Amino acid sequence: xxxxxxxxxxxxxxxxxxxxxxxxxxxxxxxxxxxxxxxxxxxxxxxxxxxxxxxxxxxxxxxxxxxxxxxxxxxxxxxxxxxxxxxxxxxxxxxxxxxxxxxxxxxxxxxxxxxxxxxxxxxxxxxxxxxxxxxxxxxxxxxxxxxxx
Length: 149
Hints:
7-stranded mixed sheet; globular; alpha/beta; 2 helices; 7 strands
């Protein structure tokens, strides 16, 4: 999932717009293995209808207000709970693609960051979800500014 703006389709789901809301703004990033296209839906809810329930290879994200005029950008990926080997493989795949996925999301929502420049200093955390404790964790991924072009 490398950043190629020609392969990124961004859709704003009303009432979300390019510049609002910030708090609770949600991202659903999916892709097509066949075409290489990335699909970013931005709204106030996740676009569950875009998620392939068999593959579960989406990246979900949201802005969380933590007070004192600051936010955390929080992402979520489903590593799985079928068996340890499958979870290990999915974890490694997610880890290898997450930086590109975050770059696509930041690029797709770049107008929000241009409007609210204080958001570029927002820390990013990723929740890896698995029934296996080895893969069920939170990881720090830097700041929004680290992913801006």
